[in-house]
């Protein structure tokens, strides 16, 4: 009699555990096997403007979007669509090479990011792309690591 009772309790606890686990996974789309929530993420204009977006860093003398930036840019395009938001893009270069050449390279970088965002559903009329050449460095141009950080496009949501 006690054995049947223990088996019943054990089975009931196992079922309860499965239900709790399933409910937790359904509520958290980051868990494996959970359904991802693709619903629009509505944020206030102030929340968007305060959002810190990772800079897109480019290779030396390059204006092609690096592979490691694709997911970040797809998320930015989705946020733009979901919130009918506007962006400012700032293209920069390091100080290696001629001033005018770096100015044009920084423009090409900003335009490449804009094109990528538009290809992923963003409204081109809501994106302002500006070039800054090698003005406003965020790191020293005396080191390789510093120059890498300066070859970038900054992304900022606007109110």
Q: Which characteristics define this entry?
A:
globular; 4-stranded mixed beta sheet; alpha+beta
Q: Can you put this structure into words, describing what you see?
A:
With 159 residues, this protein is of the alpha+beta class. Helix content is 47%, strand content 13%. It has a four-stranded mixed β-sheet.
Short description:
With 159 residues, this protein is α+β, with helices and mostly antiparallel strands. The chain has helices at residues 2-27, 45-50, 70-83, 99-119, 144-150, and strands at 56-57, 86-91, 127-131, 152-158.
What's the SSE blueprint?
Blueprint: H1 2-27, H2 45-50, E1 56-57, H3 70-83, E2 86-91, H4 99-119, E3 127-131, H5 144-150, E4 152-158
Parallel strand pairs: 2-3
Antiparallel strand pairs: 1-4, 2-4
**Radius of gyration, whole Å:** 24 Å
Order of helices and strands: HHEHEHEHE
DSSP E strands, number: 4
Using the alpha-carbon principal axes, give the shape.
globular
Strand order of the largest sheet: 1-4-2-3
Determine the structural class based on helices, strands and strand pairing: alpha+beta
Q: Give the averaged pLDDT, no decimals.
A: 84
Largest sheet: 4 strands, mixed
Q: What proportion of the residues form beta strands (DSSP E)?
A: 5-15%
Give unreliable regions as ranges: 12-31
Distance between the termini: 70 Å
User: What is the tally of helical segments?
Assistant: 5
């Amino acid at each position: 009699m006690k054995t049947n009772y223990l088996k019943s309790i054990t089975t009931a606890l196992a079922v309860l555990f499965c239900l709790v686990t399933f409910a937790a996974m359904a509520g958290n789309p980051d868990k494996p096997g959970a359904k991802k929530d693709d619903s629009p993420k509505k944020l206030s204009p102030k929340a968007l403007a305060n959002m810190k977006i990772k800079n897109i860093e480019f290779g030396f003398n390059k204006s092609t979007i690096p592979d490691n930036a694709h997911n970040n840019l797809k998320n930015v395009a989705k946020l733009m669509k979901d919130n009918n938001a506007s962006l400012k893009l700032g293209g920069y270069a390091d100080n290696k090479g001629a001033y005018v050449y770096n100015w044009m390279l920084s423009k090409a970088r900003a335009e490449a990011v804009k094109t990528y965002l538009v290809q992923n559903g963003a409204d081109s009329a809501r994106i302002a792309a500006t070039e800054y050449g090698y003005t406003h460095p965020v790191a020293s141009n005396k080191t390789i690591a510093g120059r890498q950080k300066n070859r970038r496009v900054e992304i900022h949501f606007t109110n």
